[in-house]
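#onboarding

Welcome to the new folks! Below is a worked example of what a typical request in this channel looks like: someone posts a single protein sequence, and someone else replies with the predicted structure as tokens. Don't worry about understanding the tokens yet, we'll cover that in week two.

Example request:
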Amino acid sequence: MNGVETISTSARAPEDGSAPLLRARGLRLAFGLTEALRGIDLDCHAGEIIAVTGPSGSGKSTLLHVLAGVLVPDEGTVDYDTVRLSELDEAGRSRLRLGTFGFVFQYGQLLPDLSAVDNVTIPLLLAGVRRREALRRSDSWLDRLGLAECSRKLPAQLSGGQAQRVAVARALAAQPTVLFADEPTGSLDSLAAETVMLALTEAARDANTAVILTTHDPRTAAFADWEVVVRDGQTTVGGADG
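Example response:
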């Protein structure tokens, strides 16, 4: 990602003029006397990949959690399509996260006693997907992410990069419209990180899934269309050249 320019985080619009899928305005959140977010605006469109970067403690993970409805801001709004998250109760936000949003975390958080395919399948079954369809989606995503031969292995039998790709498969098998990824390559070496990001971004673009990820790694951020830099709870945006 080169030539970062400072612009409003809500100033971008795709060429087709479509409305943002996720729209945040004036986000403020404090933990005690510490202001984690200080008036952040952000738009994310379908099929767009945004990297949220910044130093440790800058507020990037807090921003991700507010956008996903895990945390409720003190001020400001987050709208997903036509739904305002602040107008939902906790149960409503949980349903949105279960049925519409996907999540990938730094350490994958796979269930250690389940095979790769079961780690992908179980959340689908819990969401009400029929078993045959859940298995079809699981096998399809594991195959697309180069993991067909690993489907029966336990997480302990997988490399770090393989385990993280299983986590990506689990998230995308649920067919989310927005995928949130918190430091998805933070625990991986550079080669495994590149493999995971290639798999994640290609799969997300194929499915027209919006992706918002946090990272401290410029090589990971380079996979995004836009880089949102968070410092002291505020943001600037950089565009990718080429």
